[in-house]
Specification:
- By secondary structure, this protein is of the alpha+beta class.
- 21% of the residues lie in helices and 30% in strands.
- The longest helix is centred in the N-terminal third of the chain and has 17 residues.
Length: 237
């Protein structure tokens, strides 16, 4: 059982998601509920989360997912069968679409794509080149974009200031070219694979770490072959 203010906030969040795919700000929520401070909104959101009506997505500003609505409510986000279609925001997993939209030809947009995990990649001390497929993971198409992809498990901390940690899984778009500044999988001398930021310096290629403890490595262009470009990252807590 929700309080009146909790119900009002839940309806307001859901309506905004369905209209624009973007959650309201705390100021907008405060004004909509005629509250004097944002602390009241924080308390309402916590109460809705504790009761299982919403979920806050980690590491994303203003990212809220509506999990369900009170049974008495019948907004457009509820299908005829009564199942609510979650609205996931600012995470690349969709833009707040109701279940009915998926049933009208949008199933492919939500169907996971199987991505091969091709072993481990060094972000620090060099390890062996990319291995053969070790497993697969399923990801929604919006997480990937166009092209062929593979995943690698990160070992090392040389890219930590780029937000890439040891034991993260990186999603790589397979390609053999890249722009200066891209984070790429580079194969050095056909035997050492590493994850670094590419910099083109005249006729040379620099592979930059994102950790001051590691030096930039510079090679002739014939020694470095691009295997792919970083497009996404998965982290387990």
């Amino acid at each position: 059982m929700l309080t009146r203010k909790q119900s009002e906030l839940l309806r307001f969040i859901n309506e905004r998601l369905m209209e624009s795919g973007v959650p309201p700000s705390f100021d907008e929520m405060k004004d909509a509920l005629d509250l004097r401070s944002k602390s009241g909104i924080h308390r309402l959101i916590m109460a809705l989360e504790e009761r299982g009506f919403i979920r806050r997505l980690p590491n994303r500003a203003r990212a809220l997912e509506v999990l369900k609505l009170p049974e008495a409510s019948t907004p457009s986000g509820v299908s005829r069968g009564g199942r609510f279609a979650p609205n996931v925001l600012e995470g690349g997993l969709g833009r707040g679409r109701p279940a009915a939209a998926a049933s009208d030809g949008g199933e492919e947009r939500w169907r996971p794509v199987s991505i091969p995990v091709m072993g481990r990649i060094a972000a620090g001390t060099p390890i062996s080149a990319i291995q053969q497929r070790s497993s697969t993971i399923g990801l929604p198409p919006d997480f990937l974009g166009a092209g062929e992809h593979f995943a690698l498990e990160v070992r090392g901390d040389s890219m930590i200031e780029a937000g890439i940690h040891d034991e993260d899984t990186v999603i790589i778009r397979k390609q053999d070219t890249a722009e200066s500044g891209d984070i790429v999988v580079a194969l050095i001398d056909d035997e050492e694979a590493t994850l670094k930021r590419l910099r083109k310096r005249g006729a040379s290629v620099a592979l930059e770490a994102a950790n001051p403890a590691y030096e930039t490595r510079i090679f002739g262009p014939d020694r470095v072959h691009i295997q792919g470009k970083l497009v996404s990252l998965i982290r387990r807590y």
